[in-house]
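Researcher: We are triaging several targets before committing to wet-lab work. For this one, the compound of interest is flavin-adenine dinucleotide. I'm pasting the protein sequence and the ligand SMILES. What I need is the predicted three-dimensional arrangement of the protein with the ligand bound, expressed as structure tokens, so it can go straight into our comparison scripts without reformatting.
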Amino acid sequence: MPVPLTFAVARGLAGPLALTPSVPPTPPSALTGWGHASALTGRVVDTPRMSDDFDLVVLGAGPAGEKGAAQAAYFGKRVAIVEREPVPGGAAVHTGTLPSKTLRETALFLSGYRQRDLYGVTVEIEPHLAVGRLIARKNAVRELETARILNNLDRHGIEQVRGEACFVEPHTVEVAGRGSRRRLATQVCLIATGSSPFRPAGIPHDDPDVHDSDAFLGIDRLPDSLTVLGGGVIGCEYASVFAALGVDVHLVDPRPRLLPFLDLEMGERLLDAMTAHGVSFHLNARAERVERLPGRGLVVGLTTGAELAADKLLVAAGRKGNTDGMGLEDIGAKVDERGYVVVDEHFATTVPGVFAAGDVIGFPALASTSMEQARVAVCRAFGFAYKQEVSSLLPFGVYTIPEVSCVGMSEEDATRRGTDVIVGRAFFRDNARGQIVGDRDGMVKLIFDRATRALVGCHCIGERASELVHVGQAVIALGGTVETFIELVFNFLTLSEAYKYAAYDALANFGPGPVPG
Ligand SMILES: Cc1cc2nc3c(=O)[nH]c(=O)nc-3n(C[C@H](O)[C@H](O)[C@H](O)COP(=O)(O)OP(=O)(O)OC[C@H]3O[C@@H](n4cnc5c(N)ncnc54)[C@H](O)[C@@H]3O)c2cc1C
């Protein structure tokens, strides 16, 4: 099968495995629909229809779909990617990762949040102006990222097909769109259709002030008060962003602690910091009833007997797989009760040649892991001798205010596994850069195996935590020990330098004794 010209050009320009665009992005104004962004002109034109036989058909053009498609095309496979929305990007670009992080940065900027401690600044936010600016910034970032994706697909020679995809046979996908239907035959399928907010029963979802995490981004005014149902990552992130903007935020969660996958100490620090920054927590509590009452707004009755009245309600009660109407059961693919596709450890479904990756298979449902899963699925599907596993060392980033991030074992994990550990801590308030940026909450916590002195867990909270954690991740991956940090020279002044002092703290806790040679 001939390699499409755009693919050959892309390879020559970008070099092996460089999947970043090597041509200027398409101007945002040109992003009028799901089409073919010419690598040469940057113009969007309708994709010329080619033959309907492919090596790989990818369903869904979010992070998993994009990276899975690019991986196969890179190795010379003929690939089509089907997307039902006008533009690619999925939840990551349009309703999830990018918009929420852009809102966060904009909220920090508009509220003068980072400067408050330093200069005693109090900023009054004009609600209508603030939302307008938040949304404008979010849209600008979204358009840039969409342009990047269109260029990436284009330069890999991936055929972009717009429409709703469903299976008619295990290796035939039908796409319904633009008033027509098209059947694509393929050797391998990758299901990457993502997930949507789960809507629990008993909540008036049709009330204009009740939002799920998708609809929340469309609000046209900053509320005075907000109740968030669900203290998972999404609920916590939005709660802290809106509290930073001066909104009176109440967060309700049935569990006794915040984000139980975090190291207990870090979860408690986050809870304390968010409480100090204005979020009221109602843990061990469930919503029993939600109703609109005259003069009180949306009233939530909790199992604890408390009542919360607010202008707006954000329902952040988990997600469900986007598999409805896709004919998966008809082809013999297993789907669980939340709509998630059941896969094995190599992302193969119960149907030979049909793979699934990303949010549509459930936990951990992160853009970061979704992309890796899709790459691995494609390498496994075609037998490429490359990228056979997703790393077991997964970092987690929670973009609350303050930010939290972790990789490897928590102290509780170590106790559960019977690993004897030594802990070292360093605080940003004792770090020169931390003092300059005014971070009072920040900290790095390192967990070392007592027997081998190897780093086995790294936990960061505060400014740039989700960036900082990758230092720890690299050291764990390379088998580094407490001595690695003692020997390394860190730029001064940086927050990264906190690693060295956390290591010194751990060294003191190891106590005197032989250092393994
Ligand atoms: C508020 C929020 C914040 C988040 N923050 C982060 C974060 O900070 N870091 C992080 O790593 N992750 C974050 N995530 C998660 C991240 O967005 C997802 O993990 C990621 O988008 C999943 O990628 P995906 O490709 O599997 O699915 P998606 O991004 O959901 O893409 C699936 C695509 O498939 C399309 N599709 C669905 N059905 C069909 C069909 N039948 N035919 C054709 N097309 C179809 C959809 O339109 C969509 O474009 C966040 C999510 C939310 C909601």
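Researcher: Any quick observations?
Model: The CA atoms of residues 321 and 339 lie 4 Å apart.
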